[in-house]
Design the sequence.
C-alpha cells in the first residue's frame, strides 16, 4: 500500500516531529506513577533488572521498525526466537561445542529471516501471510526438534552473555546501545536508509527511480532474523534454558513498541528514537504493573488495549497532518 | 521536508531520547543509592526483618485453572490465620520464562519468602538461587525446582503413593488384568512421567497381568484429550481401561468413554478435581479417582514458608501446620502433605474444588 | 490489502477442464483427493465411516468459523482474534447453560457475545481505521484477558445434557454438528452469490478504490463481515461446549491459526476479492484429514504446527504460480 504523505507547514506538522517528545513525556509519567505505586520501582537494581528484559525486545524492534516503514510486517519473530533457542540448546546437547552452537543459532535466525525475505520478494507474496505461515512453521520446527523438551545444562560461562555486568552496567545494555546507534546511523545517514523510506512512501515510484526494492526488502527480513538470533542467544543465557516455548507472544510486544514509537503500519513513517521510547514504555509498564501487584490477567488485557490505542492515535495524528 | 532534513530532525529527537534514557538511569541511580537490594546485604534477613508482617510471595504454574485457584484459597486461609502478607500471582500461561521474571521481581520486592510451583525445575534454578543469596527463604510446592536452588519442597504426595493408588483402583475395577491407555499432559512433564513409572513398577510387582499399552499426550487441552481417547478406543476396542493422569486428561477420557457409550465396559480413573469429575461419577463413567486436596496444599505451603522465615521449621519428624495437624517431614528439605485422597460417589459432594 | 482484480476473464471457448482448474478451490480439492487416496493405502484405519465421521466432527468448529472468516478475507481484511473470541463465547454460553438457561438462551448468549466482539473489530477497522491485523492482534490478547478477568480463572463444568445437543446430538443418523456445518455452508454460498452484500464484499476486496468510486458501501460491507465472524464463532462455541462438556479458560487457544490456514489453503486469496465458500470448507476438511493422517501415521503431535505452517506457505505459493501459469495478471 502506498501513501502520499505531504508535510505542510504549520502547527500541526510540528506535532509530528515532537511525537518523540510526547512519548518521552508519557514515559516520565509512567515512571512517576509506577514509583508511587511501588517503593521498589525506582531503584537501580530494578532498573537494571528491567533493562535485561527489554534488550531482547529492543533488538528485535530495531529490525521490525525498518520492516514496518516499508509497509511490511513480520509476525514470525517470536517463533524464530524459539527455533534459535532450540538450535543452540539441542546442538549443544548433541555434542557440538557451545561457542559453535551459539554461532549455529544465530545463523539459524538469519536463515529464517532470509527464508521470510525470499518468499516476500521472489514470490511477491504479502508479508502478512508469509510470516503467518512461518509463525507456525518456525514454532513447529522448534517444538519438533526439541520434542517439547528443554535443555538446561549449560556451562557456567554461558550465563555471562545474559547475566554479566561490566561494572554496574549489564552486558546486554551495552550491546543494545551499540545496536541502536548502528541501526539509527543506517536509517538516517546512509542511502540504504533513504531507500527504506522511499519504498514505504511509494514502492512503485521507488522502483522506477532505481531503488533495488527486492534486495532492500530481503536485507530487512534477513537483518531482523539476525537480530532475533542475537536476542535469542541473550535470552537463552539469561534463563539458562533452551525451550520450544520461548518468545510466545513476543510479536505483540515488538509490534506494539514499534507502532507506539510512531511508525505507521501503512509505511513511510517511523524512527529509531521513537521505537526505543516505545520499547522503554512497554518495558516499564510491564515491570511497574508487576511490582505494583497488578495480577497477570489484567496485564494481558491492558497490553492488548494499549496496542489498539497506540495505533489509533498514530493514525489519528497522521490524518490530521495529511 | 527533504530526506536530509529528516535526518537532522531525527538526530535532534534521538538525542532527546537518549537524554531521556540517561535521565531515567540517573534518577534510578540517585534513588537507588539508599536502597539497592542486590545481594550485598546478605546478612539482612531478606528485608523486612524488623517487624511488620512476614511477606510471602507465592507462585503457581499458571493462573486461570481451578486446581491453582483452589491452592490460592488455601493459601489465603493460611495467610489470614498467620497474619502474613501474601502475594499469589503467576503467568497466564505455563511458561518457565515468565516464572523466572516473576521470581526476579519478587527478589526486588524483598519478599521474606518465595515459594513456587515450577514449570521447569532447571530453568528457575538460577533465579531461585539468587533469591536465596539475597537472604530470602526459598521453597517449592506442587512441582519442585532443582534441589540445590531451594531450601524446602512441599510435596503433595509421593510418586509411589500416587502410582500405586491409581493402579490399585484400576485393578479392583478390571480384575487385575488387561491392557491400558494412559493419557497424560505433555510427554516431557517430569511429574507425570514419574507417576507413570511408578504405575508400571507397581503393575509389574503386584499385577503382572496388567500392562500399559500406550501413553498419549493430551497437552492440557480438553478437546484434544477427548479426541485422542476416542480415536484410540476405536482402534483398540479391547482396551480394559484408561488412566487420565492430569486434571484435564481425566475428564477428557471420561467424556470420550461416555460419548462412545462404553461406560462400565472401559474403566476410567486418574487424577482430577471433584468438581470436574462430578458429572462423570454420576453417570457411572468413572467409579473412583484420586487427587490430593489442593486447598490443603496451598495452605501447607504458606505455613512452611512462614516457618522458614520464623526459623522454626524442624529438620525431621513432624511439622505442626495449623488445622492440618502434624505433617510428616520426609527429609530435612521435604514436607509431605499426606497420602492421596480417593473420591467416589459417596464423598464427592463433600468437596468444592 | 487491495490490488488489481485478479479474476481472469473466462472465454466461452475454454474447455470445462480449464474453467474448473481456474476455480479458486481447485488445487485444494485435487490435493484433498490425492491425500485421501494416499492415506487410504498407507494409513491403517483411515478408510472407514467412523474415521471420516470423526474427522468431520473434529473440523466442524474450524469449518464454521472459516466460512465466516472467508468473507472477511474476501473483503480484503483479516481476523486473527477468533481463538480468544471462541473462548469468550464458550464461557458465556456455558455459564448460561449451567445456570439453567436451556439450549435457546445458551445459543443466544454465545451469539450475542460473538456479535459484539465482531462489531468491535469491525468498528475499529472501518471507523477508527486501524489496520485489521493490528485490531485483531490486539483483540486476541485483550479478549483472552477479559475472559480470565471475568471468570477469575474458574472453569464451567457440568453442562446439562440438553444444552450439549448441538455438539453431540444427531438427526437422521448423522451427527448434528456436521448437519449444521453443511447447512451454514449452503447459506454462505447463497449469500455470497445472490445477495448484494455478498457481491459488495467481493468487489471491495477485489478493488477497493473502484468500489469507492462506484459508490459501494465499502465500510458497511467490511463491518458486517466482522460481525458475521462473531456470529459464526458464537454458533461454533455452542457446538464446542457441547462436544467438550465443560469450558476451560484456555478454550480456543491457537484456533485462529487453523482457521486462517483453512481459508488460505482452501484457495481464497489473502489479498482479497478472490475465493469461494467451497474453498473455506475444503480447507477445513483438508486440515482435518492432514491432522488425522498424522495421528494414524504416528507422527508426533509436536510437528503439527510445522506441518500447518508449511502448508500455508505451500498453498499461497502455488496460488501465485498457478496464476502465472494460467496467464492471469498478478
Sequence:
Amino acid at each position: 500500500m502506498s501513501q502520499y504523505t505531504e508535510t505542510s507547514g504549520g502547527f500541526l506538522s510540528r506535532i509530528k516531529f515532537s511525537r518523540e517528545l510526547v512519548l518521552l513525556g508519557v514515559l516520565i509519567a509512567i515512571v512517576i506513577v509506577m514509583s508511587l505505586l511501588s517503593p521498589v520501582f525506582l531503584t537501580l537494581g530494578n532498573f537494571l533488572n528491567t533493562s535485561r528484559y527489554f534488550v531482547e525486545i529492543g533488538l528485535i524492534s530495531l529490525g521490525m521498525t525498518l520492516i514496518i516503514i516499508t509497509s511490511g510486517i513480520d509476525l514470525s519473530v517470536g517463533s524464530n526466537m524459539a527455533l534459535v533457542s532450540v538450535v543452540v540448546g539441542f546442538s549443544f546437547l548433541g555434542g557440538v561445542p557451545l561457542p559453535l552452537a551459539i554461532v549455529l543459532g544465530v545463523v539459524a535466525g538469519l536463515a529464517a529471516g532470509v527464508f521470510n525475505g525470499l518468499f516476500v520478494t521472489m514470490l511477491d507474496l504479502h508479508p502478512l501471510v508469509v510470516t503467518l505461515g512461518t509463525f507456525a512453521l518456525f514454532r513447529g520446527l522448534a517444538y519438533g526438534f526439541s520434542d517439547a523438551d528443554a535443555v538446561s545444562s549449560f556451562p557456567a560461562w554461558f550465563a555471562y552473555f545474559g547475566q554479566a555486568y561490566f561494572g554496574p552496567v549489564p552486558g546486554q545494555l551495552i550491546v543494545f546501545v551499540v545496536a541502536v546507534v548502528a541501526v539509527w546511523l543506517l536509517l538516517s545517514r546512509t542511502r540504504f536508509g533513504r531507500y527504506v523510506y522511499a519504498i514505504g512512501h511509494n514502492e512503485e515510484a521507488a522502483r522506477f527511480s532505481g531503488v533495488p526494492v527486492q534486495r532492500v526488502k530481503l536485507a530487512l527480513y534477513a537483518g531482523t532474523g539476525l537480530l532475533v538470533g542475537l536476542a535469542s542467544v541473550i535470552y537463552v543465557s539469561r534463563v539458562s534454558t533452551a525451550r520450544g516455548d520461548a518468545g510466545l507472544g513476543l510479536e505483540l510486544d515488538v509490534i506494539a513498541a514499534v507502532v507506539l514509537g510512531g511508525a505507521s503500519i501503512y509505511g513511510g513513517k517511523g524512527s529509531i528514537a521513537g521505537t526505543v521510547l516505545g520499547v522503554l514504555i512497554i518495558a516499564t509498564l510491564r515491570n511497574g504493573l508487576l511490582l505494583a501487584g497488578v495480577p497477570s490477567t489484567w496485564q494481558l488485557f491492558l497490553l492488548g488495549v494499549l496496542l489498539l490505542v497506540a495505533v489509533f492515535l498514530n493514525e489519528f495524528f497522521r490524518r490530521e497532518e495529511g | 521536508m527533504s530526506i536530509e532534513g529528516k535526518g537532522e530532525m531525527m538526530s535532534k529527537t534521538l538525542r532527546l531520547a537518549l537524554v531521556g534514557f540517561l535521565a531515567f538511569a540517573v534518577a534510578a541511580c540517585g534513588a537507588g543509592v539508599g536502597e539497592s537490594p542486590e545481594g550485598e546485604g546478605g546478612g539482612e534477613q531478606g528485608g523486612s526483618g524488623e517487624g511488620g508482617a512476614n511477606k510471602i510471595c507465592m507462585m503457581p504454574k499458571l493462573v486461570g485453572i481451578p486446581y491453582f485457584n483452589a491452592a490460592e484459597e488455601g493459601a489465603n486461609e493460611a495467610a489470614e490465620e498467620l497474619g502474613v502478607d501474601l502475594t499469589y500471582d503467576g503467568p497466564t500461561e505455563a511458561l518457565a520464562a515468565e516464572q523466572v521474571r516473576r521470581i526476579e521481581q519478587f527478589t526486588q520486592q524483598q519478599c521474606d519468602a518465595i515459594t513456587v510451583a515450577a514449570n521447569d525445575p532447571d530453568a528457575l534454578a538460577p533465579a531461585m538461587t539468587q533469591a536465596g543469596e539475597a537472604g530470602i527463604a526459598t521453597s517449592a510446592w506442587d512441582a519442585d525446582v532443582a534441589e540445590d536452588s531451594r531450601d524446602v519442597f512441599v510435596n503433595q504426595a509421593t510418586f509411589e503413593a500416587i502410582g500405586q493408588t491409581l493402579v490399585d483402583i484400576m485393578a479392583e475395577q478390571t480384575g487385575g488384568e488387561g491392557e491400558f491407555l494412559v493419557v497424560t499432559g505433555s510427554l516431557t512433564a517430569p511429574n507425570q512421567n514419574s507417576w507413570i513409572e511408578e504405575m508400571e513398577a507397581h503393575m509389574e510387582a503386584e499385577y503382572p497381568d496388567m500392562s500399559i499399552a500406550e501413553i498419549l499426550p493430551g497437552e492440557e487441552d480438553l478437546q484434544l484429550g477427548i479426541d485422542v481417547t476416542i480415536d484410540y478406543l476405536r482402534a483398540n476396542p479391547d482396551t480394559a481401561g484408561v488412566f487420565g493422569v492430569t486434571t484435564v486428561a481425566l475428564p477428557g477420557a471420561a467424556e470420550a468413554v461416555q460419548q462412545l457409550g462404553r461406560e462400565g465396559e472401559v474403566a476410567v480413573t486418574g487424577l482430577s478435581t471433584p468438581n470436574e469429575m462430578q458429572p462423570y461419577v454420576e453417570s457411572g463413567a468413572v467409579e473412583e479417582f484420586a487427587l490430593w486436596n489442593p486447598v490443603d496444599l496451598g495452605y501447607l505451603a504458606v505455613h512452611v514458608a512462614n516457618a522458614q522465615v520464623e526459623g522454626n521449621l524442624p529438620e525431621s519428624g513432624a511439622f505442626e501446620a495449623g488445622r492440618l495437624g502434624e505433617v510428616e517431614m520426609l527429609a530435612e528439605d521435604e514436607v509431605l502433605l499426606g497420602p492421596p485422597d480417593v473420591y467416589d460417589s459417596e464423598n464427592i459432594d463433600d468437596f468444592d474444588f | 490489502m487491495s490490488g488489481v482484480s485478479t479474476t481472469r476473464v473466462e472465454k466461452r471457448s475454454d474447455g470445462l477442464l480449464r474453467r474448473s482448474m481456474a476455480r479458486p478451490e481447485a488445487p485444494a480439492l485435487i490435493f484433498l483427493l490425492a491425500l485421501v487416496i494416499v492415506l487410504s493405502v498407507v494409513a491403517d484405519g483411515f478408510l472407514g465411516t467412523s474415521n471420516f465421521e470423526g474427522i468431520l466432527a473434529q473440523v466442524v468448529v474450524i469449518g464454521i468459523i472459516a466460512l465466516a472468516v472467508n468473507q472477511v478475507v474476501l473483503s480484503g481484511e483479516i481476523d486473527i482474534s477468533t481463538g480468544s473470541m471462541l473462548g469468550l463465547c464458550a464461557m458465556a454460553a456455558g455459564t448460561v447453560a449451567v445456570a439453567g438457561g436451556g439450549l435457546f438462551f445458551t445459543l443466544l448468549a454465545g451469539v450475542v457475545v460473538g456479535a459484539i466482539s465482531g462489531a468491535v473489530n469491525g468498528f475499529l477497522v472501518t471507523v477508527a481505521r486501524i489496520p485489521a491485523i493490528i485490531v485483531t492482534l490486539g483483540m486476541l490478547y485483550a479478549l483472552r484477558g477479559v475472559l480470565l478477568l471475568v471468570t477469575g480463572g474458574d472453569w464451567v463444568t457440568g453442562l446439562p445434557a440438553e444444552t450439549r445437543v448441538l455438539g453431540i446430538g444427531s438427526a437422521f443418523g448423522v451427527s448434528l454438528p456436521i448437519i449444521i456445518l453443511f447447512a451454514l455452508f449452503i447459506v454462505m454460498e447463497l449469500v455470497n452469490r445472490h445477495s448484494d452484500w455478498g457481491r459488495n464484499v467481493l468487489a471491495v476486496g477485489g478493488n477497493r478504490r473502484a468500489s469507492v468510486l462506484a459508490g459501494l458501501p465499502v465500510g458497511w460491507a467490511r463491518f458486517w463481515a466482522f460481525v458475521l465472524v462473531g456470529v459464526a464463532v458464537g454458533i461454533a462455541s455452542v457446538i464446542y461446549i457441547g462436544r467438550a462438556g465443560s469450558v476451560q479458560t484456555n478454550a480456543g487457544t491457537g484456533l485462529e491459526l487453523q482457521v486462517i490456514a483453512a481459508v488460505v489453503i482452501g484457495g481464497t486469496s489473502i489479498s482479497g476479492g478472490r475465493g469461494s465458500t467451497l474453498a473455506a470448507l475444503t480447507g477445513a476438511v483438508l486440515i482435518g484429514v492432514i491432522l488425522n493422517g498424522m495421528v494414524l501415521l504416528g507422527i508426533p503431535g509436536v510437528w503439527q504446527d510445522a506441518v500447518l505452517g508449511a502448508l500455508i506457505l505451500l498453498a499461497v505459493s502455488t496460488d501465485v504460480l498457478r496464476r502465472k501459469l494460467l496467464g492471469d495478471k498478478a
